[in-house]
Structures are given as C-alpha cells and as structure tokens.
Amino acid sequence: MAAIYILFASFFLSLPLSQAGVVDLTSSNFDQVVDGSKAAFVEFYAPWCGHCKRLAPEYEKLGAAYEGSNDVVIAKVDADADRTLGGRFGVRGFPTLKFFPKGSTTPEDYNGGRSADDFIKFINEKTGSNAGIKTPPSDVVVLDPSNFDSVALNKDKDVLVEFYAPWCGHCKALIPVYEEVATTFKNDENCIVANVDADGHRSLGTKYGVSGFPTIKFFPKGSTEPEDYNGGRGVDDFIKFLNEKCGTHRVKGGSLSPEAGLVDELNDLAKKFMAEADSRESILEEAQTKAQELDSPQADYYVKVMNKVQEKGDSYIETESERLGRMVDGKKVSAKKSDEFTKRRNVLRKFEL
Which residue range or ranges hold the Thioredoxin domain (predicted)? Predict the structure, then answer.
C-alpha cells in the first residue's frame, strides 16, 4: 500500500506546471489526473485569447492557493492545440471553466465570477476546503478608486504611481524592481511608492491618459497634476529619481546615504570649530545664528554637538559616534530612530579632522 501511495505521489510531483500549482493537461495525461480521486477545476483556453490572458494572473493565484492540496487539482488545457480534448467536453469558446467533483469524471460548468477570490469561494464550498489567496508581503501601496485621491493627491506627499494590468508581461517583469524600490522608501512617510490596476479600474487609467502598460507617473506634493516618468526601469534609476524629487537620501535596501542629515551651510563651520580651538566661542555663536535662520532640527544638532564638545572635550565626537553606531548596527532601535541616529553620525563625521 505504501508503495502505491509513493507511486501516486510521484506521478503528481512529475506533472508539468506552467504556473505555481497549475497542472498542464493534454489528451495524454488528462484521464490520469482527472480520474475522480480528487476534485478538479480546469480551464480550457487558447494562447491567443485576450480574455484568457487577462484571466492568467487570477488563475495563477488560484493554483498557488491549492498548491500541494490532497483534495483539489487546479489545471488547464490548451484547447486550441488539443482540439480533441476541447471537443470531448463541449468547449465552444475561451476560456471555458469546468469543475469535476471528487468521485466523478463528469464536469459541471462554472459560470461564476472570474477573480481568484470567486474561484476559491466556489471550490471551497464544493469541496469543504479552506484555501485562501497567498499574498506575499509588500511595501507597495495599492491604490483603487476609494483611496487614490487621498494618497496620490495628498498635498503633503510625493507619490510614484505605476498604472499596470495584471496580464501585462512588462508589468510582471517590473514587479521585483518596484518592490525593491518600495522597500527602500518604506520609512519615508511622505515619499510613497504605489500602484493601481488600471485594467481593473479603467476610469483611473482614462482620467490620467494611460494608453499602455506599465505607465508610471509622479504626483508631486502640492499638485494635482502628475508628471510622466520616462526614466530607466532599474532599481537605481527609480531611487535616484525619487531622491531628487522627494529630497531624500536613500540607498538600495532602505538605509541612508552619507549625505543624509547634513546642512551645507554648517559643514565648514564644523570643521573650523574643531580645527581652531581658540576661536570656538565665536564659531559657536556664528553657528547658532545660522541655525536660527535655517530653523531645522538638523541645523540645531550641529550647535548641540559644539556645545557638547565644549562641555566634554574633543573625544565626545568619537565616543558619541561609536555609541550611535552600536545602536544602529545592533538593530536595537526602530526604523525611525535608526534614520535619526544615522543622520547624527553623518553630522559627527563633519567634525572629524
């Protein structure tokens, strides 16, 4: 009995999978897979069919939801190439979806909705399964008509928006790049990386003149009119663009560059303060005046460092930098604090001779 089970399991493991969890069927293996031992949900499609192409990403989610299931098989048949198999089941258009209950090789027509959620609800009800869509974590903000204006048109935020279609090959190729960009900027609450399914929400695509996929637009803070993004499609291209537009200093992965937190007007004064010990009081006064004019927390930090050096001596620069480094490198603080401490370390380096 154990040997039979192993052979049965090996057969299913050896089946061709064109998508995660979706079995490719032909006349040569159909009856071996759809044999009544499991429930089966089968799409009969044609590669050239536009509706089939649009269905593909939803069907891929469906396959992933039941991947490894002992009770349900998700499969598909190229019924244009294998017309005999399509004719056998009365396929007259594409895509045609059929459900084969466990214990039967006679199908039921599926006439429900065409989203992965619709499919899963139907199959779970038919089989008693409790599968669900496996959604990987993402730092990309998902937009739709209910939240588009509140995010993309927020007067306090800079927002990069990808208008995509789930079936678009170029959009799929962009996914890992766009995810890495979103992760890089996830700690910048006013520099947002977002996307919207402009095929599913066509009114948004039409409103912003989207005529192809993917279309990428940048919505600057304080404006309701987007700018077209026509730059490169690599991670570094997007990061450079957003740093320039958002005034940020991110590097790939999300950490801050050595320039983050620096104040150009005070960098020379920092060096001068350490080099000219006899003139520190006058340099400190000059820095205080400049910081008041700039009215920024980072400018104030230069003054704070000068006061600490006056109080604790020149060694303060090294000891404080090392202390902040331990906090950041040891990941003992929140992402927000890590950014704050990294900026402080960058400033402290300007005091080093």
Answer: 14-128, 129-247
